[in-house]
């Protein structure tokens, strides 16, 4: 049972949402190239009435719009993905990327400042050395917390096509970036070189029929990564096998259901997101109408399939017409891999409880935004007689889409992004145990 | 047969029943009408039209989404394959070939290819109209600035001008802008490499298209191109002229090709555009948004040309 906690109004369309590894920080990227980081208020964490409060921690401009003079094209500053690095010291690091350039940002706190210099006044002016009669040791005194974000690395000029994914390796030294046709491997310290590990660009571009849609490193095996395609396939690659991972180690593909075949079959089979489970044994894929859970040991078909909005199947032509069929929904696991979540239209989002075989549809709306208000399950009426409180398919608002959702790595706290708003919800039982 | 200005409603009730061997039952006297009268064929045709328009109408300032383009192109290919099996394709070609006249072309083609008419009609290999069409604008600029590159070849091979040549092979691939994509490669590479690439690819493209152009291959490619004529641009049409009236004709030179934005509002007959704009804000760029971007383009043009 989820409750409303907070809502944040974004200046621009939110394009990515990501918790860090402890869940204390929540980063969002937007279409204007800005990154906003929220920090969890953890003072009351041990109390039963714990309310997970997130407050704005830092805001900075990550990417600026650029103009590619060679091609006469704008390069959008929209942040496509943010990925946090595991914390190694007092500072936090994250990777943020737009279509072409990845940046490593350091976010550090400053809450003390030095005072009592011998040669300088407090305001910085230099003292006349002749007037100094005694010596003292400068001390650090508390000051208002200042959070600084500084770009530490810029990884540029390695992608001809648009970057859709970045993923930090479990070795904490390397990461991958994937565009429509290629995947590159980087070392976090080295910006002028990257290794191309997957290249599906055909020699003759006229033969292009498939693109890479998402890629991710395995959470524990630093040699393994997967990438999904627009044809609904997922390839698992092992970097130990060869330098260029064009040949997959495993190919995950579900045979098509002939009874559902249509001109839109391929489009709706295109995978928009792929995520490994935290335990590394499964992976989840999101295509237009469903979420599929795959066992890494079984390539022939998924072990679980969940229908997100099957009632849209008869509307595919309209959705093709208004381009909604190309919307890329993301998906995410909860901390113990028992529940998966993904977004839908009309500001609905869906959760599937794998163990209990239950699913629920919830709505992120301003009307249901009173503090600790319980979210009421919603229901869409596919056809026939509409019951009270149900919404008919035709009254769904396809402009209100939830593409980005994130689940706290440990607790039952979720972040859901509508077009311009970020919602934080928490479960009545916040802690997963 | 292809009524101008008619907005086809694509009924959503149930998916098109697809089995590739399906033959649509003939129902009227003319062969084409017979095939087209079945609701399925009509829907399929409508889907095809929609897809072709989608491939053309992308926001010109930013690089088009490759995934979306690939998916649409694959859909188009799928329809064409089915229509070929149906026999509908061949019938369509013949009917269109009879009706076609060289002057009929989508306005956008005209705009984009104004200066390359001669070259194109000289039999240079045409390239797909769709996604390529957009890229042409971009790469002509590239081409101009790097004086050494074999610009003429590149530009002309990219213009799908005359209908006969416009095997605008949507199916040869909207990305059959071989030269363009190759040039796009490796930002860090020196110009020499790009020249080589473009030359290589141009020859590849030409070869490929020569194949396509062989008359007796009833390939979708060759025939497909004639779809451009399906909605012929009307001769001086007051509505059309009104639409373009506030566009400065001085744009019809390098600038036009450069910005490419001009192409967007003119890419289809005015009626198609109207019907499209009624599909909701989330759809394709409307002419008004295109115009509002013209100021942006002015600015960009200043940067490129002025500096």
UniProtKB/TrEMBL annotation, chain A:
User: Superkingdom of this entry's organism?
Assistant: Eukaryota
Looking up SUPFAM superfamilies in the UniProt record yields:
WD40 repeat-like
* InterPro entries, per database record: PP2A_PR55 (IPR000009), PP2A_PR55_CS (IPR018067), WD40/YVTN_repeat-like_dom_sf (IPR015943), WD40_repeat_dom_sf (IPR036322), WD40_rpt (IPR001680)
CC annotations in GO: protein phosphatase type 2A complex
Q: Does the keyword Electron transport apply?
A: no
An annotated Gene Ontology molecular function: protein phosphatase regulator activity
Alphabetized UniProt keyword annotations? Repeat, WD repeat
PANTHER family attached to this UniProt entry: PROTEIN PHOSPHATASE PP2A REGULATORY SUBUNIT B
Q: How does it assemble?
A: PP2A consists of a common heterodimeric core enzyme, composed of a 36 kDa catalytic subunit (subunit C) and a 65 kDa constant regulatory subunit (PR65 or subunit A), that associates with a variety of regulatory subunits.
Family assignment?
Belongs to the phosphatase 2A regulatory subunit B family.
The protein depicted here goes by the name: Serine/threonine-protein phosphatase 2A 55 kDa regulatory subunit B
The protein's organism comes out as: Dicentrarchus labrax
UniProtKB/TrEMBL annotation, chain B:
Boundaries of every SERTA domain copy: 40-87
Query: Where does the record place Basic and acidic residues bias?
Result: 209-219
Q: What are the boundaries of the region Disordered? A: 1-30, 177-219
Q: Where is the composition biased (Acidic residues)?
A: 181-208
Pfam families, per database record: SERTA
Q: Which domain of life is it from?
A: Eukaryota
The record's Gene Ontology cellular component field reads: nucleus
Tell me the first and last residues of the signal peptide: none
Q: Which InterPro entries match?
A: E2F-SERTA_domain_protein (IPR052262), SERTA_dom (IPR009263)
In its UniProt entry, what is this protein called?
Answer: SERTA domain-containing protein
Native organism: Dicentrarchus labrax
Gene name for this UniProt entry: cdca4
């Amino acid at each position: 049972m989820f409750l409303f906690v907070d809502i944040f109004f974004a200046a621009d369309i939110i394009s990515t949402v990501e918790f860090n590894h402890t869940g204390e920080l929540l980063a969002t990227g937007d279409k204007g190239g800005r990154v906003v980081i929220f920090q969890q208020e953890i003072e009351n964490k041990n109390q039963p009435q714990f309310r997970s409060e997130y407050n704005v921690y830092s805001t900075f401009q990550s990417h600026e719009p650029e103009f590619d003079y060679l091609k006469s094209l704008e390069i959008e500053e929209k942040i496509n993905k943010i990925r946090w690095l595991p914390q190694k010291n007092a500072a936090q690091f994250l990777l943020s990327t737009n279509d072409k350039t990845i940046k490593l940002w350091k976010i550090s706190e400053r809450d003390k400042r030095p005072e009592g210099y011998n040669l300088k006044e407090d305001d910085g002016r230099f003292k006349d050395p002749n007037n100094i009669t005694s010596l003292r040791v400068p001390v650090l005194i508390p000051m208002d917390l200042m959070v600084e974000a500084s770009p530490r690395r810029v990884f540029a000029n390695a992608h001809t096509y648009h970057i859709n994914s970045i993923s930090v390796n479990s070795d904490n030294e390397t990461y991958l970036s994937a565009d429509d046709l290629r995947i590159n491997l980087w070392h976090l310290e080295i910006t002028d070189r990257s290794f191309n590990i997957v290249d599906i660009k055909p020699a003759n571009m006229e033969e292009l029929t498939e693109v890479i849609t998402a890629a991710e490193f395995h959470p524990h095996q630093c040699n393994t990564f997967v990438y999904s395609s627009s044809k609904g396939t997922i390839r698992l690659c092992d970097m130990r096998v060869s330098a260029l991972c064009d040949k997959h180690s495993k190919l995950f593909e579900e045979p098509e259901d002939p009874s559902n075949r249509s001109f839109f079959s391929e489009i709706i089979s295109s995978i928009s997101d792929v995520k490994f489970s935290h335990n590394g044994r499964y992976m989840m894929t999101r295509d237009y109408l469903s979420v599929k859970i795959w066992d890494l040991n079984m390539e022939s078909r998924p072990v679980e399939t969940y229908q997100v909005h099957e009632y849209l199947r008869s509307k595919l032509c309209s959705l093709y017409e208004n381009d909604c069929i190309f919307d890329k929904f993301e998906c995410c696991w909860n901390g113990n891999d028992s529940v998966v979540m993904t977004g839908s239209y009309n500001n609905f989002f869906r959760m599937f409880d794998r163990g209990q075989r239950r699913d629920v549809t919830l709505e992120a709306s301003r009307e249901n935004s009173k503090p600790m208000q319980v979210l009421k399950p919603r229901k869409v009426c596919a056809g026939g007689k509409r019951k009270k409180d149900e919404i008919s398919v035709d009254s769904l608002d396809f402009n209100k889409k939830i593409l980005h959702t994130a689940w706290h790595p440990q607790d039952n706290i979720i972040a859901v992004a509508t077009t311009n708003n970020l919602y934080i919800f928490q479960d009545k039982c916040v802690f997963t145990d | 047969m292809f009524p101008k200005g008619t907005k086809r409603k694509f009924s959503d009730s149930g998916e098109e029943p697809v089995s590739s061997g399906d033959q649509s039952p003939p129902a009227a006297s003319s062969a084409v009408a017979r095939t087209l009268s079945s609701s399925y064929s009509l829907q399929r045709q409508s889907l095809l039209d929609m897809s072709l328009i989608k491939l053309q109408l992308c926001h010109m300032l930013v690089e088009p989404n490759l995934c979306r383009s690939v998916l649409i192109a694959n859909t188009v290919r799928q329809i064409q394959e089915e229509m070929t099996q149906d026999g509908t394709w061949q019938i369509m070609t013949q009917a269109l070939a009879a009706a076609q006249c060289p002057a009929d072309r989508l306005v956008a083609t005209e705009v984009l290819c104004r200066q390359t008419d001669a070259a194109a009609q000289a039999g240079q290999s045409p390239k797909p109209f769709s996604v390529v069409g957009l890229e042409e604008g971009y790469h002509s600029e590239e081409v101009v600035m790097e004086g050494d590159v074999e610009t003429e070849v590149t530009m002309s091979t990219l213009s799908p001008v005359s209908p006969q040549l416009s095997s605008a092979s949507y199916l040869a691939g909207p990305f059959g802008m071989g030269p363009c994509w190759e040039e796009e490669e490796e930002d860090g590479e020196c110009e020499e490499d790009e020249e080589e690439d473009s030359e290589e690819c141009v020859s590849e493209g030409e070869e490929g298209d020569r194949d396509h152009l062989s008359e007796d291959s009833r390939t979708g490619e060759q025939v497909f191109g004639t779809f451009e004529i399906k909605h012929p641009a009307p001769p001086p049409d007051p509505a059309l002229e009104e639409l373009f009236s506030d566009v400065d004709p001085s744009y019809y030179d390098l600038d036009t090709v450069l910005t490419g934005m001009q192409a967007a509002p003119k890419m289809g007959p005015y009626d198609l555009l109207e019907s499209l704009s009624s599909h909701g804000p989330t759809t394709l760029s409307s002419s008004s948004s295109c115009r509002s971007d013209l100021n942006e383009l002015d600015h960009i043009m200043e940067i490129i040309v002025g500096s």
